């Protein structure tokens, strides 16, 4: 009995601190996700970045940046079904995006790509830093967010990027 009481007390304490504690797993009307991914630090023209933003009604946008100063950008609108967006929200809840704190790691790795996420729901905001102390299953969430972008859009951006690299001229080149 004492073990059961301890478990119940621990569960209440664990989940009562969450901004979404006790909330149903349906998509809140103010839901927004803002995901960013940046390639590793490499010389132009090989660096690129993208952002994916989606709101509760399923409208979204992907911005694909070709360089560090973000002057070259390709943009595509997104239309995500409510059902798909609810699945992503439930995954976020299941993996702790909406139920735990996300402190930044004390030390950051050198090199490699970076990614981070901001989620708004029920008038609360959760930000996941590029290097969380305990990343847990966050990559699963990131993969689900990237899957919101249809494959033909990714293929289009990949082809445009290849063309950009092929035609890139360094300063002083003719």
In brief:
By secondary structure, this protein is α+β, with helices and mostly antiparallel strands. Helix content is 31%, strand content 24%. Mean pLDDT is 85; it is low at 1-22.
What does this structure look like?
- The chain has about 170 residues and is of the alpha+beta class.
- Helices cover about 30% and strands about 25% of the residues.
- The protein has a single domain, classed as 2-Layer Sandwich (Mago nashi protein).
- It is globular and about 55 Å long.
- The longest helix has 17 residues.
- It is built from 4 helices and 6 strands, in the order H-E-E-E-E-H-E-E-H-H.
- The protein has a 6-stranded antiparallel beta sheet with strand order 4-3-2-1-5-6, with helices on one face.
Compute the CA-based radius of gyration. Answer: 19 Å
Number of helices: 4
Name the CATH superfamily assignment.
Mago nashi
Summarize the helix and strand pattern as letters: HEEEEHEEHH
Report the helical percentage.
25-40%
Distance between the termini: 80 Å
Oligomeric status of the shown chains? single chain
Structural class computed from helices and strand pairing = alpha+beta
Low-confidence stretches: 1-22
Q: Kindly state the mean pLDDT as a whole number?
A: 85
Instruction: Output the strand order for the largest sheet.
Output: 4-3-2-1-5-6
Biggest β-sheet, characterized? Answer: 6 strands, antiparallel
- Shape, principal axes of CA atoms: globular
Q: What is the number of domains?
A: 1
Task: Give the percentage of residues in beta strands.
Answer: 15-25%
CATH class: Alpha Beta
> At the third CATH level, what is the topology name?
Mago nashi protein
The CATH architecture assignment turns out to be: 2-Layer Sandwich
Tell me the number of strands: 6
């Amino acid at each position: 009995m004492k073990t059961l009481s301890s478990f119940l007390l621990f569960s209440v304490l664990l989940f009562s601190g969450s901004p979404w504690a006790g909330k149903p797993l349906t998509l809140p009307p103010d839901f927004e996700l803002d995901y960013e991914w940046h390639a590793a630090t490499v010389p132009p023209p090989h660096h690129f970045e993208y952002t994916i933003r989606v709101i509760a009604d399923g409208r979204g946008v992907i911005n694909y940046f070709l360089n560090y100063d973000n002057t070259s950008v390709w943009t595509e609108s997104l239309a995500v079904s409510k059902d798909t967006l609810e699945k992503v929200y439930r995954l976020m809840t299941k993996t702790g995006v909406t139920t735990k704190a996300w402190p930044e790691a004390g030390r950051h790795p050198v090199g490699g790509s970076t990614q981070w996420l901001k989620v708004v729901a029920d008038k609360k905001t959760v930000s996941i830093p590029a290097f969380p102390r305990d990343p847990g299953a966050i990559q699963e969430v990131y993969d689900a967010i990237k899957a919101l972008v249809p494959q033909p859009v990714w293929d289009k951006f990949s082809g445009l990027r290849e063309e950009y690299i092929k035609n890139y001229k360094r300063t002083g080149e003719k």
